Amino acid sequence: MEKDIQRKDIIEKLDSDLTVIKTKNDLASLKALYLGKTGVITNLSSKMKELDPSDRKEYGKFLNELKMEVLEKLETASKEIESRELEEKLNKEKIDITLPGRKHLKGSIHPMTRIIEELEDLFVSMGYDVISGPEVETDMNCFTKLNLPVGHPARDSQDTFYIDNDYLLRSHTSPAQVRTMEANTLKEPLRIVCPGKVYRRDDDATHSHQFMQFEGLVVGENISLADLKGTLELFAKKLLGEKTNVRFRPSYFPFTEPSCEVDVTCFKCGGKGCSLCKQTGWIEVLGAGVVHPNVLRMSGYDPEKYTGFAFGPGIDRFAMFKYGITDIRQIYTNDIRFLEQFDRKDVE
Ligand code: DAH
Fold first, then answer.
1. Which pTM was predicted?
2. Ligand 1 pocket by C-beta < 6 Å: which residues?
3. Which fold has domain 112-339?
4. I want to staple 320 with a disulfide (CB 3.0 to 4.6 A). Which of 23, 95, 275, 325 is the partner?
5. pLDDT digits over 204-252, tens only?
């Protein structure tokens, strides 16, 4: 009888304790209060010694049952807390599956990069190497070794950005010729192209202070103007279409002799005459020529043994034509709204 009352009191107390606990920590403290070293149940067990041995068995059974009941209640409470915590967490992290997904911005290949890749492919297929040179160049490589000594009037035509007396931002990719010939210590024949940025003090809708050239140089035995002509015809037809014609006009560059300027059939009107070609049907696209013996000599090549040709188109115009770009500066301002239009699949 007494035991029953004890049990009832303990369980009632536990039930009421369980109504106020909220967390797993509270539950652990409660467990210690009942089953810990100095807990209610443990205290009851210590009374065993005081009992008559004949009563001990029954008391032990009572304690066991009580302990089991307490454990069961604690276990149930623990599960309740767990599921409540889980529910709270889920409510907090609720995902609204009706929200539209986030769009990932997809990059595209820059129109200038495409032109360069196309040209590189063409020249690589003809056995050329692709090289690059620094944009900060020496005055020596950019001018002197290209047969433009200090004081040469043609230096002015390039409106160069100087860094100091010896260094400048290259005004053309032609110094790549010097670099390649000098690096080729065995002075063997060579074929290279060099795409790259060049800089001049110029800035309007058709001139940018920074633009792109694509230098070419071939040096070998018996290289002639005829090889240059054949190469540039191929270049023009491949880039601008089979119907494109090429015209060579005599010109002057200090690093070539003879020198020429090369025109192609106007890519806008197909040769009929329009505002782009100023009604001539032709558009000038590059300077070229047979490498001047002085240039070969200054870079260690014997002009008696070797000859060569070189060419250097500005290639922004090709990109402008091919992609309908009207202001050259758009090519370099990296405005994403402009660049987004050149999704690879739209063009190819
Ligand atoms: N470097 C010249 C320029 O920027 C273009 C040029 C002309 C390059 C004749 C050449 C060449 O390689 O042979 O105006």
1. 0.71
2. 172, 174, 215, 253, 255-256, 287-289, 310-312
3. BirA Bifunctional Protein; domain 2 (3.30.930)
4. 325
5. 777 789 999 999 999 999 999 999 999 999 999 988 999 999 999 999 9
